[in-house]
Amino acid sequence: MNCCITDLHEKEVINLSDGCRLGSVCDVEIDTCSGCIVSIIIWGKSKCFGLLGKTEDIKICWNDIKVIGDDTILVEFDCPEECKRNNKTNPLDSLLGRR
User: Fold this and answer.
1) Is 26 exposed, middle or buried (0-12, 13-18, 19+ CB in 10 A)?
2) What is the domain count for the chain?
3) Distance between terminal CA atoms of the chain?
4) The predicted structure's pLDDT at residue 18
5) CATH number for the domain that contains residue 46
6) Helices marked H in 1-99 — which ranges?
7) I need a labelling partner for 42 at 20 to 30 A (CA). Which of 72, 81, 83, 91 fits?
8) What band does 98 get if pLDDT is binned at 50, 70 and 90?
9) Phi and psi (nearest 5°) for 74?
10) pLDDT, tens digit, 9 for 90 and up, residues 32-90
11) Do 75 and 24 form a contact (C-beta atoms < 8 A)?
12) Which uninterrupted H or E stretch holds 12?
């Protein structure tokens, strides 16, 4: 399968190690000497509608990409702490008896 860099921009990135949904590809890092893609970059999530800034961008090495599908990119790497915190359940769920 061949795809353009603009096609990568539309794909959702999911981490295989914990099922974390990381976001969409926003940028690509290219080695200008060899012409190879070095990594993909995902923008950090905004805090409080962007008023309090955003989390760090996530940089995933090309070697950590396992599968590039039609709609998603599956990667396997150690997820940053910010991502793990964003995917935790709501504390109110346990109080209300939801799981």
Assistant:
1) middle
2) 1
3) 40
4) 87
5) 2.30.30.240
6) 5-9, 81-86, 91-95
7) 91
8) low
9) -100, 125
10) 999 899 999 998 766 666 566 667 889 999 999 999 998 999 999 887 665 554 554 55
11) no
12) strand 12-15
